[in-house]
Amino acid sequence: MRKIATALLVDDDTAFRLALQGALRRRGVRAFTAASVEEGYRVLEEEAVDLVAVDYRMPGEDGIAAIPRFRKLKPDAVIVMLTGFGDIPLTVAAMREGADTLLSKPVDVDRLLREASAIPSSDREPPPSRPGAASSARTYRLEDVERETIEAALHNAGGVVATAAKMLGIDRRTLQRKLKRIGG
Question: Which domains are seen in the chain, by residue range?
Answer without folding.
Answer: 6-127 (3.40.50.2300), 140-182 (1.10.10)
